[in-house]
Design brief:
The complex is a heterodimer of chains A (234) and B (834). By secondary structure, chain A is of the alpha+beta class. Helices cover 27% and strands 29% of the residues of chain A. Chain A is built from 6 helices and 12 strands. In chain A, the strands form 2 sheets. In chain A, strands 1-2-3-4-6-5 form a 6-stranded antiparallel beta sheet. Chain A has a 6-stranded antiparallel beta sheet with strand order 7-8-9-10-12-11, with helices on one face. In chain A, β8 and β9 form a beta hairpin. In chain A, α3 runs antiparallel to α5. The radius of gyration of chain A is 20 Å and the shape is globular. Chain B is an alpha+beta fold. Chain B is 49% helix and 19% strand. In chain B, α5 packs antiparallel against α6 and α15 runs antiparallel to α27. Classes of the chains: A alpha+beta (234), B alpha+beta (834). At the A-B interface, α1 and α3 of A face α5 and α6 of B.
Chain lengths: 234, 834
């Protein structure tokens, strides 16, 4: 094998590495079809909606909302692209059980405590031209996922897709509800709540537990969470 | 007419002698020569009309023996049916382990008309005999190639260069393949390991994050693995072919192991595409890629080390000059050495090396022949003297006629001797061969068994797969296959460097077991050039007359004692008369008629048998014997005429050599035809206790046999024609290099330097080499016997670690490298002279 071929291969490899770090727009578009977390995340979210007792409800504020079967939490997302809102997706949770467990709302960071509700949301918008009709909830959520792909992940340990709403607060749904007993999970990062006086073990309707996740560097770590899981097929 | 002589080719180029029928005159012979010589690929075609033989040298890759026959028949002549066999040595490429060598051996052994097949993995050469009447070399080549190996181009007279170029190209190709594999394996390994080794300094690109983009992660690994699999494609082509042929080899293990990893990973990739993203954790592309890269690294290091094992022979080959100055029509021209023919007149200037063997025609000089004889003093040469290729012309310019060229020269014969030894198998190698032969199938069973057991135990197919791959990869028996031949190659090569030509692996192995060394006296312990010391005529006879009578009888004798008498007579200007009815009486002396008188010269036994009363000479004879001199009786017409005392000078190194042999724990005995007193005197000088005196030539082998019958391993050291039977009878025959060709033919070891000190050196070398072989076998077995249970998860059963397939590949490659490195330690062998 001659040196030229060897050099050519080395150059190709370097180019591949560079492209892998900073792929151009056309390459990113090509990669959409092979982005299986996004593809299957959208598909399974749509499936999950069909298993919810009330399905997704179009709210007055121009957002789709799903409710936890026990009424103890709800998750909303923008129904239209180009829509201006505080959050493009958010978890809204009644504050009462948290207040009863010692939470002092005044000690929470701005934007979380809103009256009798705690809001954990993903800031931003869904880019693109204004879409006046809300369409269907799954399509709207797909747009949210596309716009905030980095917030979407697959949780290998639980077989869940999920969207990170910031600060470790997540909504997760099962990749396959038939194989999973935790089909829909509202998960909160308890540390900021604990700093505001919460005794995480005393929150009615929530389970204080821990889950194994991959951190930003890819390392497997066990982190504490406040969880509200549901088996939708029961 | 039958076809009789078929010469053994050194390598790919064939030499053959065909019996030609239908020739009526010299013109017919010329016609046959022309007809054959016109064929391309013919190097030489000579017809001897007297013997009706065509001697032809041809490149078997270009022209076949059949085509030559057809050419002869087309010219109107016939070729007699063949009955003999031809020896051939073919360089083979593509062997990866001893199992490959065993496979080719088996293949050749099964072929009709092929016998004595021996394939050496280390020298990469197949040596066999084949009956040209039954099978053609081209068919043998074809069969070997069909089995997945490469039969390399025929080697020519400049075999050293061709071999070097071929080996260098092979090493270069291996390094290139390894470099490509490493170029892709490193990022592949990094990509695969980075999610698990979070502290690595460089980030993995976001779009290749297995947690976020599992399919990208898998596809990137496939793209990185593909070039590696491509450069390692030989493992698959050879490995699977061998597997399907029912004789799996090392390549089979690599092919099956890495294929399992790749196929499993492709299945996991398919699962990812189906939405089972957790399958990203079951990818093994990096194992396959890194295994191939590591094995290519091992093979590259192995190739470099293997090249070093034959350095000695390369040095020998490098001794010959590349060109020669030929004198044609009075003009000198420089031509490549390959073009020199027997009969050419060549000129050599002072300071130049002699290009081929020949006879001096003109000029005189002194030539340093130390590379052949070990004699450091230059030897004077005058017209009529023989000179040898690669020796150094020190002082004067000479013109000489080439008598032996190419493979016929003394140097080429030495090289062939060493090459043959390196190609031969020592008995200890058979153990490795047997183990290698059954090892791979057993390993396959162990891998399947262990993986199945673990799967049944854990229900984890990934875990079972890891076990399967690890066992297959760590068990590659290449270290086992290299253990013996590499050490033998270095050992025999080292011997050659030191002037000790060991003719076979078996001789090398047996030499370490020697218990008794029997030394022939004349020419071995002594210089072999005795001189007359005493001339003791009976009364009425003059010294001159006694010497004249003795010289006349010994004139036709080749016995060293006889030659000494003739030399003395010539020196004293004594006229040497012709004799009639000359008869040499083995072990006794000579009888002839001199001036119509029956004259005898010889030992006491001859005189007694012929009824000569030697009592009057006994006193002098005893005195001479006591002084270590040989007393030769002379009798005329049945009456004693006198005694001639002849003494042979003991070599300077003999006493030291005997002492060195004793230090090695060897018993030393001396064998001589001399009477006990003379023998004892010589033995005493050199420190030998055990003496076999008055042993006739035909009884020498009997004396050796007697020692063998007492359960001893006996080495016989000798130099003369009369030593040949004893050399052949002994367990290890050692010929002193300055001796007769027959002695060297019969010997297992030839000492080129004529120095007895090389006997203990040869034993030391044998012990060192076989010790090295044993160390190699130990390391090879340890790697495999310890590696396999660990790879099979034996430690894991008790909570210990599991062997990663990549570590298995590294360990496997390391085993070959460590065995080779150990063998190369022999290059530093220095015999202990003191």
């Amino acid at each position: 094998m001659n040196k030229k071929l060897f050099a050519a291969l080395a150059i190709i490899l370097v180019v591949i590495v560079i492209l892998a770090f900073r792929p151009p727009a056309f390459a990113r578009r090509m990669m959409e079809s092979t982005d299986l977390v996004a593809v299957f995340g959208k598909r399974t979210f749509s499936d999950m909606l069909t298993h919810l007792p009330k399905g997704a409800v179009l709210a007055e504020g121009g957002e789709w909302v799903i409710f936890a079967p026990d009424g103890g939490a709800e998750f909303a997302w923008a129904a239209r692209s180009g829509q201006r809102a505080d959050h493009v997706a958010a978890m809204r949770i009644p504050a009462a059980p948290f207040l009863a467990a010692g939470l002092d709302p005044a000690k929470l960071p701005d934007g979380i405590a809103r009256g009798q509700t705690l809001v954990f949301g993903l800031k931003g918008t869904v880019p693109g031209g204004a879409r006046p009709e809300p369409g269907d909830p799954a399509t709207a959520f797909a747009s949210v996922m596309d716009a905030h792909r980095d917030s979407v992940a697959y949780h290998f340990q639980l077989g869940h897709y999920g969207i990170d709403l910031g600060g470790g607060n997540l909504l997760e749904w099962a990749a396959d509800p038939r194989e999973n007993s935790l089909d829909l999970v509202f998960a909160l990062e308890p540390s900021i709540l604990e700093q505001a006086g919460l005794d995480k073990n005393k929150v009615d309707g929530w389970i204080a537990g821990s889950v194994v996740v991959h951190d930003a560097s890819g390392r497997k770590v066990e982190v504490p969470k406040l969880l509200k899981p549901f088996d939708l097929l029961k | 007419m039958t076809n009789t002589t078929i010469e053994a080719p050194m390598t790919g180029v064939e030499r053959e002698t065909l019996a030609i029928t239908g020739m009526n005159c010299a013109a017919c012979a010329r016609r046959v020569e022309k007809a054959v010589g016109r064929l391309s690929g013919i190097r030489e075609a000579n017809v001897n009309f007297a013997t009706e033989k065509l001697a032809v040298a041809y490149d078997s890759g270009v022209v076949s023996g059949e085509a030559i026959r057809e050419a002869v028949e087309k010219a109107g002549f016939g070729v007699a049916a063949k009955t003999g066999t031809t020896e051939a040595t073919l360089p083979i490429g593509g062997m990866s382990c001893a199992a490959c060598a065993a496979r080719i051996e088996k293949l050749l052994g099964r072929m009709q008309g092929v016998s004595g097949a021996s394939v050496n993995f280390a020298s990469e050469k197949a040596k066999f005999s084949y009956d040209r009447g039954e099978i053609r070399l081209s068919e043998i080549r074809e069969a070997i190639e069909k089995a997945g190996f490469r039969v390399l181009d025929a080697e020519t007279a400049s075999a050293a260069d061709a071999d070097r170029i071929r080996k260098e190209a092979e090493i270069r190709a291996l390094w290139n393949r390894f470099s490509i594999a490493a170029l892709f394996a490193l990022p592949l390994l990094y990509l695969a390991m980075a999610p698990m080794v979070w502290w690595l300094p460089f980030p993995v690109p976001k779009y290749l994050d297995p947690m976020q983009y599992p399919l990208h992660f898998a596809l990137a690994q496939i793209f990185l693995a593909l070039p590696i699999l491509y450069v390692g494609k030989r493992f698959y082509s050879v490995g699977f072919r061998a597997l399907f042929a029912g004789s799996p080899n090392m390549d089979s293990l690599i092919a099956v192991g890495t294929s399992a990893a790749v196929i499993w990973s492709l299945y996991e990739t398919w699962r990812i595409t189906r939405g089972d993203l957790a399958a990203v954790e079951g990818l093994y592309f990096e194992s396959a890629g890194v295994i191939i890269a590591l094995i290519l690294l091992g093979k590259s290091l192995e190739a470099v080390s293997k090249g070093r094992t034959s350095e000695a022979i390369k040095k020998l080959m490098g001794l010959a000059p590349k060109t020669a100055i030929v004198v044609r029509g009075g003009a000198e021209s420089e031509i490549p050495i390959e073009e020199v023919e027997a009969g050419d007149v060549l000129r050599v200037r002072p300071g130049e090396k002699i290009p081929v063997d020949g006879v001096v025609l003109d000029g005189s000089t002194a030539i340093d022949e130390s590379m052949l004889t070990g004699e450091s003093m230059p030897v004077d040469k005058k017209p009529g003297d023989r000179i040898f290729a690669a020796t150094l012309n020190k002082y004067g310019g000479i013109t000489f006629e080439a008598t032996k060229v190419g493979r016929e020269t003394a140097l080429a014969q030495i090289i062939k001797l060493v090459e043959d030894a390196q190609s031969s198998k020592a008995p200890i190698a058979k153990l490795a061969d047997v183990v290698s032969g059954v090892f791979v199938p057993i390993v396959c069973l162990v891998a399947v068994g262990a993986a199945t057991a673990w799967y049944l135990h854990t229900r984890d197919i990934q875990f079972a797969l890891t076990i399967f791959i690890s066992v297959l990869i760590i068990a590659c028996p290449c270290a086992l296959g290299l253990a013996t031949p590499t050490a033998i190659m270095v050992g025999t090569g080292k011997g050659a460097e030191n002037g000790i030509l060991i003719k076979s692996g078996e001789a090398l192995e047996t030499a370490r077991k020697i218990q008794v060394v029997v030394l022939d006296k004349t020419g071995t312990i002594t210089e072999g050039k005795p001189a007359v010391t005493d001339i003791l005529p009976v009364s009425g006879m003059t010294e001159s007359a006694l010497l004249a009578a003795a010289a006349a009888l010994e004139k036709g004798s080749e016995h060293p004692l006889g030659e000494a008498i003739v030399r003395r007579a010539e020196a004293e200007g004594v006229a040497i008369e012709a004799v009639a009815g000359f008869a040499a009486i083995p072990g006794r002396g000579v009888e002839a008629t001199l001036a119509n008188r029956t004259t005898l010269i010889g030992n006491g036994r001859l005189m007694t048998e012929r009824g000569v009363d030697i009592v009057p000479l006994d006193k002098d004879a005893e005195r001479l014997a006591g002084e270590g001199k040989t007393a030769m009786y002379v009798a005329v017409d049945g009456k004693p005429a006198g005694l001639i005392g002849v003494a042979d000078v003991v070599k300077k190194s003999s006493a030291d050599a005997v002492a060195a042999m004793r230090r090695l724990g060897l018993e030393v005995a001396m064998l001589t035809g001399d009477n006990p007193r003379t023998a004892a005197a010589i033995a005493k000088q050199v420190g030998i206790d055990s003496v076999f005196a008055e042993v006739m030539p035909q009884d020498k082998s009997g004396a050796v046999r007697k020692l063998q019958q007492s359960g001893k391993i006996v080495a016989m050291v000798g130099d003369g024609i009369n030593d040949a039977p004893a050399l052949a009878q002994s367990d290890v025959g050692i010929a002193i290099g300055s001796g007769a060709d027959v002695a060297m033919e019969s010997a297992d070891i030839v000492l080129m330097h004529s120095d007895l000190m090389d006997v203990p050196s040869a034993v030391q070398l044998s012990r060192a080499t076989i010790g090295n072989v044993k160390e190699n076998l130990f390391w090879a077995f340890i790697y495999n016997t310890m590696g396999i249970p660990v790879a099979a998860g034996a430690l894991h059963l008790f909570g210990g670690p599991l062997l990663n397939p990549m570590l298995a590949a590294a360990a496997m490659s390391l085993s070959s490298v460590s065995v080779l490195t150990n063998a190369l330690r022999l290059r530093h062998f220095r015999p202990h002279k003191s």
